[in-house]
Give the backbone structure.
Amino acid sequence: MTRLYHWSFDPAGRLVRLCLGEKGIAFESVDSAPWSPHPDVSRLAPGAVAPALVQEGPAGHIIAIGTRAICEYLEEATDGDHLLPLHPGDRAEARRLWAWVEAGFEQVTDNLLTERVMQWVRRDREPNSEKLRRGAHALRGRLTFLNAMVERNGFAAGRQLSLADLAAAAHLSAVDYFGDVEWRAVPDLKEWYARIKSRPSFRPLLADRLEAVRPSPHYANLDF
């Protein structure tokens, strides 16, 4: 049994869901929004926050908290296709870009995505235009960098899919729901994203919806 505590539009939770999907692992989904965490999460470990994975299996009772711990655990504990390259140097590069994505998108999430979401959660206030501008500016810089990487490599960290790609796609998919990604400015990244979102592991993300907020017209379109 595998249980995942997460919130649908949290990029960290989306990364874990993609990793589970790529590994072919079915799981029970438990909603744990940032502003209303599930009470189980705080009992899992000191300071625990979603995403949090709980698994009962041959290795016993496993608790993994956060994207790094969860994805590294799944990579080590499961058979099948690897999401980190086998060659040590390539694996190090994939880890470097994975870390870059998670750190580099913090400003995008903290400003642009959070502001979009809070408009939905707290409908009694106007959006903070300064936060939206800061987030959009940060996003453009990340898009330019990622476009150069996939133009050179095919994928983010090399010639094969890795956790760096899934992390980038998880973040981009969340802001793309609101139509904030300027895909025309990054054609190579757009082609890469079309390939990523066509994977079976991505389908549950494309089915996610926020109440009273329609996704951008191309959000679930595989040919956009």
Q: What stands out?
A: The mean pLDDT is 95. The first helix runs from residue 11 to 23.
